[in-house]
């Protein structure tokens, strides 16, 4: 069991609580709410909690101007407190047995709630991730879209004169342009503007093709706890505590996933759990903030099965399948030889930790391996012994690659 700080939240009055933090995402957040109106799930059995994280747009008009067939709770923050803190506010107000975390710009299919709830009925300590089957969707055009985003949109609309006409107007006026409305979402017409993302293709090629949707044999599933689209039981959250409120962007969700994983949660996905991320301009600072928050996460635990994800930060990064294979090989070594190869194990941990520190500093990856003169010979002997065993080649290869940086 996880030894964190347990919390008590809400009374169980509905089956599902959907928690949506939002910051200046109007009208995309409204489109997300429209998609929830068409759920096959009984409307009286779920609630939607929107936490307005200090938005300066017209998000606060939603509860004034729109009515929804489900229970709708709107929480307004006077200032921006960050996504993790906003989700924590939502959790404290949640009454559902199952909590679904959804980004404000995610449009979902009518069977979205049915799929999540069915999985949780079968397993009470489950995480259901929807991030691997998320399409890109252009619902709104923004003047500060990147060239890559505009090129992708042009490709998507080449057979749709209606959207081509709107695009021509957008190019002349350079003003935010809405491409869909409530009827388009209810009818499913919005899917004409959807396309597969590079992330989705990556997940299918690297994770799903090797481990399936049930993630059998995947030992780093916690990194799939992406709060853009994920569900977990309220009981599991009560056991491990609220989200860590990192400043800036990123890793608070994976940190939560790691705690759940350590507390025995099973992770899965579903090929029918399709959702649509409404594309928006992306801040250039997100990448740097993410590496800083990763380092906070790393330094909290300093465990191999967590720090090994830093191998994806290298100049020639390992992909998630390669990382999982390396972790499997390393854990096999530790299980077979718990009291041997102590220097090799310690140095490997130190190198992984240093990768996180270098990534945070945005520095060059050099001098990862620092061993005292008195230990160099002993380390060399341990590596030679491991090579003779001929069962840990993946680990040894990675170890030596890190040594050479």
**Structural class of the secondary elements?**
alpha/beta
Which percent band covers the strand fraction? 5-15%
- By CATH, the architecture of the largest domain is named Alpha-Beta Complex
> Using only CA atoms, what is the Rg?
23 Å
Low-pLDDT sequence parts: 1-10
What is the strand arrangement across the widest sheet? Answer: 3-2-1-4-11-6-12
What is the first-to-last residue Cα distance? Answer: 38 Å
Task: Give the total of beta strands.
Answer: 13
Just give the CATH class of the largest domain.
Answer: Alpha Beta
Q: Using the coordinates shown, work out and report the CATH topology of the largest domain.
A: Spore Coat Polysaccharide Biosynthesis Protein SpsA, Chain A
Per CATH, the superfamily of the largest domain is: Spore Coat Polysaccharide Biosynthesis Protein SpsA, Chain A
Q: Please estimate the helix content.
A: 40-55%
Shape: globular
Secondary-structure element pattern, one letter each: EHEHEHEEHEEEHHEHEHEHHEEHHHHHH
* Helix count from the secondary structure assignment: 16
Any idea how many domains?
A: 3
In round numbers, the mean pLDDT is: 94
Main β sheet profile: 7 strands, mixed
Assembly type: single chain
